[in-house]
Design brief:
The chain is α+β, with helices and mostly antiparallel strands and 334 residues long. The chain is built from ten helices and 14 strands. The strands form two sheets. Strands 1-7-6-5-2-3-4 form a seven-stranded mixed sheet, with helices on both faces. A seven-stranded mixed sheet has the order 8-9-14-13-12-10-11, sandwiched between helices. The relative contact order is 0.14.
């Protein structure tokens, strides 16, 4: 019996290049979920053109769900409506029409959210036949390629089927402006996928991060933002190394969020590189020396759970996955 292959960590650019090739060979399905979705450089255009070809030329069922955050002001969070930003809104609508003409089932998520930062879909995944790219932080836009980030590639039909169904449920719930129950499902004896489905004040991923942190002896956290809330209080009592962006290198609103988080949590970052850090994972070393990791889209901030943000994460004790995360940290984060 052959040994089951562990997922492979891909940097942002490698992820998009690999994804475009796989979509051009798709036969059964192409499903995508992202917070921001644009054809704004050669890499994102290659992926979106491949989705078009799959649907229009080969009749492959294709579904794309992108958060309406795409046409707000994702980089600087300027509080104004899409109507006052015609260039971004027009670009988004043209992309929607383009994909629908090709036969892609396309849906903007979060249009019924009553505030800019609530009801968002922060999950990111791409499914091509039985291949899944997930449990990292890369969106479909040029900015994602400039960030320190990654996605995992799984060759796993069970995961592909599960997340395809989750995508259907997300689209159906979002249509009526609601949420569904959080879910979790095992991949093997080492790994479990956790999915936050947008229930305010109820983040399965954040709660699990807190539970594991309470048990761990040593913790290494990598995230876009400074951790907040209960998790931060636990980390302050532990032997923890934290890597998050310095507020001086961030865009205006992110600068504000990071600075406030740093001041209120009284934490300092070990991250010193100028490139924006967008990866999100924690490695917990337990009392017996074993390691468990959480990796995904969640920034480990209490506010993400309070506001009801959709998220996805992988919890794993698989040494091969943890080794890849630690190698990524040493190469790009330390």
């Amino acid at each position: 019996m052959s040994k089951k292959k562990s997922p492979t960590l891909l940097t942002a650019e490698d992820y998009m290049s690999d994804l475009a090739v796989k979509i051009d060979n798709a036969k059964q399905r192409v499903n995508m979920v992202a917070t921001t979705f644009r054809a704004d450089d050669k890499h994102t255009e290659a992926v979106i053109a491949a989705v078009e070809r799959a649907a229009a030329e080969r009749g492959v069922p294709a579904s794309v769900c992108a958060d309406s955050f795409t046409y707000l002001e994702p980089k600087e969070f300027i509080l104004r409506s899409p109507r006052r930003q015609p260039s971004r809104a027009v670009h988004a609508m043209k992309l929607e029409r383009r994909l629908k003409r090709a036969g892609v089932a396309f849906r903007w998520l979060g249009q019924k959210a009553n505030m800019l930062m609530t009801g968002r879909t922060h999950s990111k995944w791409s499914i091509v036949d039985d291949i899944v790219y997930a449990c990292g932080g890369v969106n479909m836009d040029h900015e994602s390629l400039a960030n320190v980030d990654y996605m995992f590639r799984f060759d796993n039909k069970v995961l592909a089927d599960k997340l395809s169904n989750e995508q259907y449920l997300i689209a159906r719930a979002d249509k009526r402006g609601g949420s569904i129950r959080n879910s979790m499902f095992g991949l093997d004896e080492h790994s479990t996928v956790l999915v936050d489905q947008g229930l305010p004040t109820n983040s399965l991923i954040y709660k699990r991060a807190c539970d594991l942190a309470e048990q761990a002896e040593n913790i290494v956290l990598v995230s876009q933002y400074c951790p907040t809330g209960k998790l931060n209080r636990i980390l302050k009592r532990k032997n923890a190394k934290l890597y998050f962006n310095n507020w001086r290198t961030a865009s205006p609103i992110n600068k504000l969020l990071i600075k406030l988080g740093t001041l209120t949590s009284r934490q300092q970052t070990l991250y010193q590189h100028p490139q924006y850090l967008h990866a999100k994972f924690i490695v917990f070393t337990m009392p017996d020396g074993s390691k468990i990791a959480l990796s995904g889209s969640h920034n480990f901030m209490r506010g993400s759970g309070i506001m009801g943000t959709r998220e996805i994460a992988l919890e794993t004790s698989d040494p091969a996955i943890i080794k890849q995360l630690e190698a990524f940290r040493k190469k790009y984060v330390e």
